[in-house]
Design brief:
Chain lengths: 133, 133
DNA sequence: GATTATTCATTGCATTTGCAATAACTTAGT
DNA sequence: ACTAAGTTATTGCAAATGCAATGAATAATC
């Protein structure tokens, strides 16, 4: 049953190559676009939470977020209660670019599953959901 | 339908983190173990073929293979017909370590799909196969 | 058969990556 | 209240990464 884990890996790497190429012009290569999308959709996560939600190493995530803050895509805010936490929000530039990121993700996603019927797509979605927990 | 592409990405990154940690002691981190497994199973691919089969950048793949050759895991052979090609084979060390890599991949794979029934696993496998081409 | 276009391996270089370690802070246990 | 254990963000550093470019070999086209 290796095919599953192998196919999943190949699809991810292929997708990342294309998406990074697409968003390099915006300074959002190296998976940086992921952070903008996720932060837009779920604002206020702290750094570690954000990193865990996309399964990326925390130190890598930290540096990418820093860069995105410097570039005006994201914004950090200290948590009021817990002084260790820094929560992440989109800044103007991040909000402005979200629709484009979203559209491209949709396009990529649609293209990926274009060989499947609608029922098969639903099936696949449900099966994968069982894997992530 | 984003969930599909997002879940697939998260699963891949999580899997890679664990597998790299497992095989660092053998000098097979950074996805290096993938090359040994694939080469063992399909000997004689040329470098570009091998890279494409796992969807990894060719220059990265090239350097990883070089390192694996230096470390005694793989072996390169010039193609007789086409002087551009260098074909990849496992060396002693690669063959020796294959069973362990294989077992770990099986373990990881089994654990990943452990929430699914056998029929669901078959379904998932078939659905994913449709995505890769 | 000469020329053009592809395809391959390889290198240069700047950037990214991630393990390991640290300091600040919070939680749990006594 | 105090201590120990766990969690967070952060930095250092060596190694990996990947885009761009090059040269060599082959394939395609004229």
């Amino acid at each position: 049953m290796f095919e599953i884990i192998r196919d999943i890996g190949a699809i991810t790497r292929q997708t990342e190559i294309k998406t990074n190429a697409e968003f390099r012009r915006l300074g959002l290569a190296n998976n940086a676009f992921i952070y903008v999308i996720r932060t837009y959709e779920k604002p206020g996560m702290f750094l570690g939470q954000l990193a865990d939600s996309v399964q990326i190493d925390r130190t890598t995530a930290f540096r990418t977020v820093q860069k995105l803050v410097d570039n005006g895509y994201l914004r950090l805010e200290d948590d009021a209660k817990d002084k260790r936490l820094r929560r992440v929000y989109v800044a103007q530039k991040g909000a402005a670019v979200y629709p484009e990121l979203h559209a491209f993700e949709k396009h990529t996603s649609d293209r990926l599953v274009s060989q499947l019927t609608v029922e098969e797509q639903t099936q696949l979605k449900q099966l994968l959901a069982k894997l992530v927990y």
